[in-house]
Amino acid sequence: MSPDTLRMQHPFLMALIPFVTATLIISAFIVGRWLANKKAWPFHPGGSKGFLHDEFLRLGAIFIPYAVILLGARFYIYDFHPEIMRSPYFYLALLSVFIFRRLTRYIPFVREAAKRIDTARAAAKASGEASSS
Questions:
Q1: Confidence band of 3 (pLDDT split at 50, 70, 90)
Q2: Do the beta carbons of residue 40 and residue 51 sit within 8 Å?
Q3: Domain extent at residue 114
Q4: pLDDT digits (tens, 9 = 90+) for 20-49
Q5: What is the DSSP letter of 38?
Q6: Is residue 128 assigned to a domain?
Q7: What is the number of domains present in the chain?
Q8: Is 20 helix (H, G, I), strand (E, B) or coil?
């Protein structure tokens, strides 16, 4: 069965597959960053759970709304206008995720989460340097 046939017969499923895949990749990336900064957990005001929450806010703040919008757009395209999938303009929409990612740093709750993470990392680094001296 070709991908075009699947798109025509199951448009919602074909829109959902990239959404689930991207969600798993972003989740793995967030958990990886969380585990890589294990030494900073004690220095975060919320501990390990607070650090994970802030990592999610920092990295997931743009992904969730963008993914939901893209899910709806893919369903619309697959269901009503499959010819748009072959258009190069469709791929320009993917560029917007990088632009929006840069703009999220100006959202107040994302800025505060980033500040808490950076402060905890700096404290952990300073603690590590002080103990090795």
A1: low
A2: yes
A3: 3-123
A4: 888 898 899 999 999 999 999 999 999 999
A5: G
A6: no
A7: 1
A8: helix
